[in-house]
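[job 4471] stage=fold_predict status=RUNNING
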Amino acid sequence: MDDTAEKGPALQMTSLLCTLHDHLDDVNWCAFSAKLLATCSGDKTLRIYNTSDFSELSFSPLSGHGYSVHCCCFSPCGQFLVSCSTDATTVVWSMVTGEIEAVMEHPGRSPVRICALSPDSIHMVSGASDGTLALWDFPSKQLRRTGAVNDTTMVACSFSPCSQVFMTGSTYGDLRLWDLNMNQLHAEKNAHDLGVTCCTFAPSILSGGQVVQFRLASCGQDSLLKIWAINKFSSGAYKMQRLHTLTGQSAPVLSCAYSSDGQLLVSGSVDKTVAVYDAKNAVLLYTLKQHERYVTACSFSPTSPLIATGSMDKTVNIWRLEDGCSGHGESALTSGEGRNSAGRLKLLVTDWSEEDVSEWLVEEGLERLVDKFRANNIDGTELLSLTKETLASELLIESVGLRNKLLRKVEELKSESACSGIPDEFLCPITRELMKEPVIAADGYSYEREAIESWINTKNRSSPMTNLPLLTTLLTPNHTLKMAIGRWKTSH
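[job 4471] inference complete, writing structure tokens
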């Protein structure tokens, strides 16, 4: 997709998978569950798609709101979808039948601009145009508490990964941290000049000594995306510190979202672009240009390397993040100059195809062996296992000098591979092998999926790294690490 993505060193690791054209007005929000994508719009409807092929479900569109639908979010289990609207209601939908499960009227009947569910599915918050907040018990759909910030409109809300606190953002420009009793724990005044537009907690919790730390991303009318550290001390006090200010977009930034592993951050802007960042290092990775108007919504899939972006052009674009390996998708790593001596992808030798081996022979002045190697289907693995005996008896290479030259070149290849050294973070802590399907376990470490699943099944749910019990056996795909491994393989 040469005309849709721009980035630096590892050009275009993202490709446009498809565009959804079903909404009749601005797309205001999009949200993923494990298997579904939900979008909502100024056309008063929500649309639900299967993420396996992005076909629309039989009960879609959902038509229960009387005015524009501003926000939607799935329950963590994916069984329910929550949406809020200018009609002053927050609606809970069944994702089994498409039927309305509950309608919650906001106190004061003010237009509801934002809604958010806690990760433990116990609480829901709705925020309105008059600055009021409503905290609901989600299982019973009963109102528990209310709060307010005067003279502003609530437009952003996100629960912490522990579900015990939540952050709100308003058109006044402040970020406020609340507990479940509606006590304000911290207020960050003027977090964004001219107003906050969105905020989202990173999914991970960092802890050390007497401090527990969360990460939060926020964006606003000041054209900035900011990453914050929120520290909770043993005394119960909270402190908020700005870590990074990201300036990859040239106009107000309207939406932002973390990947499920917390390592990527995406944002959409009035400048019609989508920016994807390395959240840990605060580095712009890609700028995606496909929408024709403001990008109002963005979301990462929790289970697949997919991003959805919604726009005032009434479309939703689905982007696929590539892992950098040869032959996957439309990554620019497999285009451009082609696989020649100047620009050929240098994978691990064991990953070389027969064609890679042929090209290497030509580069090393051994072109006379190309036909013989092709006839015997010699790939990278076979190349490294060649011996004097196999060259003479199986490949029938009669020249002793030619056999010796080839073996010297193969030994050089092996030496180069050994010297390159695989970064330790790319190795599974259990198998000490390069990971192919890295996942994050509850202890915060990344493992090869098959290895950690086997460990959990046989080691009574303890962490291989800390020996402490794993609080959950849930494994989250580490797409960012998989892409980093792919990029490393292309340069070694």
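[job 4471] summary: The two ends are 25 Å apart (CA to CA).
[job 4471] exit 0
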